[in-house]
Amino acid sequence: MTYTIRIGTQTRELPVISVGDVSVALLNLLGDTALTEAAAEELAKRAPEVDVFVTPEVKAVPLAHALSVRTGVPYIVARKTQKPYMVDAVQKTVLSITTGKPQDLFLDGSDVPKLRGKRVAVVDDVVSTGGTLRALSELLGDVGAQVVATLAVFTEGEERDDVISLGHLPLFDNVGEPEVL
Asked: Matching Pfam families, A to Z (predicted)?
């Protein structure tokens, strides 16, 4: 089963996959340059004025890069594993719907001065339960950044008015029917 999306001139059939009790239409920007560029073009039109974009790795990284190119706003990646090159890394734990288990987010200590006192927009591919968004916002608050917006290609599940997005993806029951929320 698939779910059809359209962004600009780009149309995709997203596979619907089970993630526990529900199924989701899986958006994967990695390797899909045309869709990523179309999403960045549309999100750049909606983005508020900010100093820095911050994105969790991995799938939203090309989107943050494309937004940075269009707007001139730099971006920082919150990593999901601590790397040996990180100095004084700052950490938060998150439970994401797509992983189904706790995972960590890390900011390299060398990025903290680039964030302290800055207006930040979080960039993600899909915001569903908001677990990653909450953990990343807390992490950014811990280092003195002010999260003023969240930009996402899609929201998923319950409608959200706290995210600037290009559309909404339904959740599906495990028989493939959209759930009524």
From this structure: Pribosyltran
Query: Where on the phi/psi map is residue 165: left (φ > 0), alpha (ψ -120 to 50), or beta?
Result: beta
Q: Do the beta carbons of residue 152 and residue 165 sit within 8 Å?
A: yes
Q: What is the pTM of this model?
A: 0.89
The pLDDT confidence band at residue 159, using thresholds 50, 70 and 90, is confident
Domains parsed from the chain with CATH numbers: 29-168 (3.40.50.2020)
CB atoms within 10 A of CB 47: 19
Structure tokens at 130: 């908001």
Instruction: Name the pairing type of β-strands 52-56 and 75-78.
Output: parallel
SS (H, E, C) 26-42: CCCCCCCHHHHHHHHHH
Close Cβ partners of 31 (under 8 Å, ≥ 6 residues apart): none
* Secondary element (H or E) of residue 132: helix 131-142
